[in-house]
Q: What sequence folds into this?
C-alpha cells in the first residue's frame, strides 16, 4: 500500500486536486488511474463507489445533525422511505468503538462536539463506506496537540488495515510521521515525488521554498 | 463539551414559544370571559388553519435556508383560478347567486387551485436553484407577479357564490370540529412524520445545516430545495381553496400580508432563518400563538392597526433571540 503526501505552501492547487479526486468538480485534462485503468469521476457518488473517500478541511459534516445522522449522511438506511434510526445508531457505535473513538452522546448535534471528535466521525464514516483510498485535507490543522495525537493514532491504525491514504498537509512533522512517499506541489505543479526515507526534513523544506530539488 | 448553561439556553429556546402561548391564553381568559368558550376556541382554530397550512410548507422552505414571500399573492391567484374553474370559465365567472349553479364541481376547483400552487412553487424553486437568484428576490418578484396575475383573472372584482358542497369544505363541521381544522390536523401529522422519520426529511435538515456537506455526500441539493417550494405551493393552493369556500368568494386582494403572518409563525415556532433547525410542532405553536393573539386583541377591542405593530415586534424579537442563542452555542 502506497502512501502519498502533498506538500505545498499555501498556494491554490491542492484543494482543487482533492475536489477532482472526490468527484466534486470535473478535471479539465489528464487521466485518473485506479489499478491501472482510467476512471471518470463524474460525481461524489461515483468516486465513493470506487472506494475513494474524502475528508475535507471543513469536515463536511452537518453541524445541526447528530453523530448517527452524519455517519450515514446521503447513505441512510431505510425501509419504505422511513429511517431505521436504531439500527443506524448501533452500526455507527460499533464502527466508532472498533476504531477506539469515544463519543459521549450520539444524539446531540455534532456542533456540540470537539474538533477532534468531529474529525474522528468523518474518518469513521469513510472507513465504514469501505474506503480503499482515503483523501485527507489537512486533517490536523484545526486540532490541539492531544487531538492531533489521537487522529495520528487513527491514521496509523488505518495504515495497518491497508487503506491507502492521500494526505494533504503543510505540517512537515505530519508528513514524516505518517507517510511513505512525498509529493511536493508548487504553484499547482508537482515538483518532486520521493520516498520519505530517502530525504530529510531540510531537503523537503528547501524543495517547497525553491520549487526544485 | 456540553456546558450546562448552553444546554439550558437550548431548552429555553425550545420551550419559550409554548410558555409565551400559555401566558397569553391565561391573560386573555382572565380579561375576557368568552375567550375560553368552545365556540371561540373553534373559531380561532378555523382561522389558524388557513395560514397554518401554508406555515407547514414554509417550515420546509426555511429549514433549507430559503424564504417564500410570494405565498400571499399566490393564495389570491390559486383561489381565483379555482373559482373560475367552478364557474365554468372566464366568461361565466361573474354569475352570482346565493346558491349559484356551478358548471364544474368543487373538486375540479380544488385540483385547479392546487395545480397552480404546485406549478408556481416549481417555478420559484427552479429560478432559485437553476438561475441562482436568491430566494428572497425570486419570491419578492413572485409577490408582485402572482398578485398581478390574480388581478387579471379577477378583473378587479370578486368571484362569489358557490354551491353547498363547495362551501362545506370551508364552513362545514364534523361534530363540533370545523372541516378546515380537520384538514389542518391531517397535514400536521403527515408533515411531522415526513420531516422527522423519513430519509427525505433527514436530507432537508442536512441541506439546511451544511449544503456543501450534503452535496458532497451525494444528496441532490437542488432537487431538495426545489421540492420545498413545491410543497409550499401545494399548501397555498389547498388553503386558497379552503379560504374561498369559507368566504363563499375569491378575490384578488385575498391573502394580503399573509407572507408576514406565515413567516412569523414559523420563526417564532423556533425554526431558524439561518437554516438547519426547526420542526412542525414549533410551527403549530407559532401559528396558534398569532391566532390567539389576534383573537384576544379583537375580543378586547384593540385596534387592528396596533395588532400589526405587535406582530412585527414579536417577529423581530424572535429572530433576535435565535441569533443570540446561536452565538452562545459556538463551541
A:
Amino acid at each position: 500500500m502506497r502512501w502519498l503526501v502533498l506538500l505545498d505552501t499555501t498556494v491554490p492547487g491542492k484543494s482543487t486536486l482533492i475536489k477532482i479526486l472526490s468527484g466534486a468538480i470535473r478535471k479539465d485534462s489528464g487521466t485518473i488511474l485506479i489499478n491501472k485503468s482510467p476512471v471518470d469521476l463524474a460525481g461524489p457518488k461515483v468516486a465513493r463507489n470506487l472506494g475513494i473517500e474524502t475528508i475535507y478541511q471543513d469536515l463536511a459534516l452537518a453541524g445541526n445533525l447528530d453523530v448517527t445522522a452524519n455517519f450515514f449522511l446521503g447513505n441512510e438506511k431505510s425501509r419504505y422511505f422511513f429511517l431505521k434510526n436504531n439500527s443506524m445508531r448501533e452500526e455507527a457505535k460499533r464502527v466508532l468503538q472498533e476504531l477506539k473513538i469515544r463519543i459521549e452522546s450520539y444524539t446531540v448535534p455534532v456542533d456540540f462536539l470537539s474538533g477532534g471528535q468531529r474529525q474522528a466521525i468523518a474518518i469513521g464514516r469513510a472507513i465504514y463506506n469501505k474506503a480503499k483510498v482515503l483523501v485527507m485535507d489537512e486533517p490536523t490543522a484545526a486540532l490541539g496537540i492531544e487531538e492531533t495525537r489521537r487522529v495520528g493514532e487513527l491514521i496509523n491504525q488505518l495504515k495497518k488495515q491497508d487503506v491507502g491514504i492521500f494526505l494533504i498537509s503543510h505540517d512537515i512533522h505530519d508528513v514524516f510521521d505518517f507517510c511513505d512517499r512525498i509529493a511536493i506541489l508548487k504553484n499547482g505543479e508537482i515538483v518532486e515525488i520521493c520516498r520519505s526515507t530517502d530525504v530529510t526534513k531540510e531537503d523537503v523544506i528547501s524543495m517547497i521554498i525553491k520549487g526544485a530539488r | 463539551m456540553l456546558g450546562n448553561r448552553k444546554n439550558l439556553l437550548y431548552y429555553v429556546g425550545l420551550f419559550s414559544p409554548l410558555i409565551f402561548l400559555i401566558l397569553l391564553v391565561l391573560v386573555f381568559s382572565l380579561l375576557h370571559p368568552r375567550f375560553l368558550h368552545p365556540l371561540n376556541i373553534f373559531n380561532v382554530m378555523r382561522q389558524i388553519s388557513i395560514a397554518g397550512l401554508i406555515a407547514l410548507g414554509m417550515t420546509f422552505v426555511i429549514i433549507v435556508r430559503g424564504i417564500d414571500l410570494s405565498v400571499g399573492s399566490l393564495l389570491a391567484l390559486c383561489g381565483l383560478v379555482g373559482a373560475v374553474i367552478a364557474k365554468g370559465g372566464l366568461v361565466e365567472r361573474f354569475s352570482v347567486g346565493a346558491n349559484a349553479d356551478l358548471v364544474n364541481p368543487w373538486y375540479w376547483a380544488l385540483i385547479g387551485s392546487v395545480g397552480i400552487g404546485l406549478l408556481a412553487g416549481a417555478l420559484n424553486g427552479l429560478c432559485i436553484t437553476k438561475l441562482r437568484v436568491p430566494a428572497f428576490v425570486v419570491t419578492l418578484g413572485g409577490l408582485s407577479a402572482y398578485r398581478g396575475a390574480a388581478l387579471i383573472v379577477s378583473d378587479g372584482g370578486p368571484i362569489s357564490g358557490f354551491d353547498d358542497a363547495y362551501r362545506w369544505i370551508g364552513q362545514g363541521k364534523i361534530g363540533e370540529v370545523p372541516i378546515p381544522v380537520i384538514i389542518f390536523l391531517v397535514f400536521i401529522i403527515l408533515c411531522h412524520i415526513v420531516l422527522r422519520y423519513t430519509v427525505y426529511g433527514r436530507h432537508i435538515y442536512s441541506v439546511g445545516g451544511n449544503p456543501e456537506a450534503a452535496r458532497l455526500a451525494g444528496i441532490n441539493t437542488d432537487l431538495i430545495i426545489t421540492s420545498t417550494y413545491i410543497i409550499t405551493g401545494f399548501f397555498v393552493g389547498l388553503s386558497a381553496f379552503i379560504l374561498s369556500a369559507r368566504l363563499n368568494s375569491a378575490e384578488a386582494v385575498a391573502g394580503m400580508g399573509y407572507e408576514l403572518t406565515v413567516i412569523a409563525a414559523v420563526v417564532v415556532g423556533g425554526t431558524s432563518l439561518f437554516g438547519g433547525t426547526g420542526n412542525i410542532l414549533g410551527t403549530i405553536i407559532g401559528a396558534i400563538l398569532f391566532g390567539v393573539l389576534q383573537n384576544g386583541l379583537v375580543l378586547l377591542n384593540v385596534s387592528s392597526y396596533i395588532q400589526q405593530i405587535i406582530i412585527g415586534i414579536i417577529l423581530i424579537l424572535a429572530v433576535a433571540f435565535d441569533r443570540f442563542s446561536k452565538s452562545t452555542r459556538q463551541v
Notes: Chain A has a mean pLDDT of 80.
